[in-house]
Specification:
By secondary structure, the chain is α/β, with parallel strands linked by helices. It has a single domain, classed as Rossmann fold (3-Layer(aba) Sandwich). 40% of the residues lie in helices and 14% in strands. The chain has a 7-stranded mixed β-sheet with strand order 1-3-2-4-5-6-7, with helices on both faces. It is globular. The two termini are 14 Å apart.
């Protein structure tokens, strides 16, 4: 973790609590998959994916991110990507994950996964970024239309991050429209962490540069019907040799049955081809 100021120095000295581990199938001898949900969601996002695995063969870990679910919701916290990674790192180390693991992130969880891989590449064997909300500005290759789309999303997010009543009402309506069981759940309890995560992790992201620095295998998977993606931005990553991009027909932003089945199959195939696991450093 890079210390950028005296304020950061004292922040990182302060003890932090562990995140809530909503699901852990256990055992230190199985391939490990750590799953990170999106903004306004909880570990329950991964229920449909977990069902695709044999828990006797894999150790599946689903964590409530900082400020969501049953995890800590500190008031004096910026909820930027480094804050999320700091709590996540401590939690993973507490679980005695003594081998390289597969990291899977959904939406904002993908942004956090990218930073985690950037900072701790020796801990990971591969990373899956699902429904990655990549918003690029001033990157060579982006066109007028994708730039306008990016501006539209970012301006909307800035508005939502300042309007609590609107965000709470909008999230309920959107959940009903998308028929999702977990995600975009904004209420009085989660408003503080939601608004700051939206502002400081999603809007102020540096994900493109994080991804550029990663040498690990990266799998980016998203739906053709995704409501929150600028798909041309995702295409800007296709020239990286370590990145495989897959667009699924008939799939939106949320992790439904079709999305989960495809992701699980890709993880299983990749894990079966793994030769020698390396201990986390």
């Amino acid at each position: 973790m890079i210390i950028k100021s005296i304020k950061d120095f004292f922040k990182y000295l302060k003890p932090i609590k562990l995140l809530n581990v909503g699901f852990d199938s256990g055992s230190t001898h199985k391939p490990v998959i750590v799953m990170l949900h999106g903004i306004g969601a909880t570990h329950k996002t991964w229920d449909v994916l977990i069902k695709e695995f044999d828990v006797k063969e894999y150790r599946l870990i689903a964590i409530d991110l900082l400020g969501f679910g049953k995890s800590p919701m500190p008031i004096n916290c910026e909820y930027n990507v480094d804050d999320h990674v700091r709590y996540l790192r401590k939690t993973i180390k507490s679980l005695e994950v003594n081998r390289q693991f597969t990291l899977v992130g959904h939406s904002m969880g993908s942004i956090i996964a990218a930073r985690y891989c950037h900072l701790y590449p020796k801990s990971i064997n591969r990373v899956y970024m699902l429904s990655l909300p990549l918003y690029l500005k001033n990157i060579k290759g982006t066109n007028f239309f994708s730039n306008k789309q990016t501006d539209l999303y970012l301006n909307a997010y800035k508005l939502i991050s300042k309007k609590k009543d609107f965000a709470i009402k909008y999230s309920k309506r959107l959940r009903n429209i998308l028929r999702i069981n977990d995600g975009l759940n904004v209420d009085e309890r989660t408003w503080h962490s939601f608004s700051l995560s939206l502002k400081n992790t999603i809007i102020k992201q540096n994900t493109y540069n994080d991804i550029k620095s990663i040498k690990l295998p990266i799998y980016i998977i998203y739906g053709m019907l995704d409501e929150f993606l600028v798909q041309d931005n995702i295409k800007q990553l296709k020239h990286f040799d370590n990145i495989k991009i897959t667009r699924l027909v008939g799939v939106n932003h949320s992790i439904g049955a079709k999305f989960a089945k495809y992701v699980a199959n890709q993880i299983i195939v990749s894990t079966d081809n793994e030769i020698i696991p390396t201990k986390e450093q």
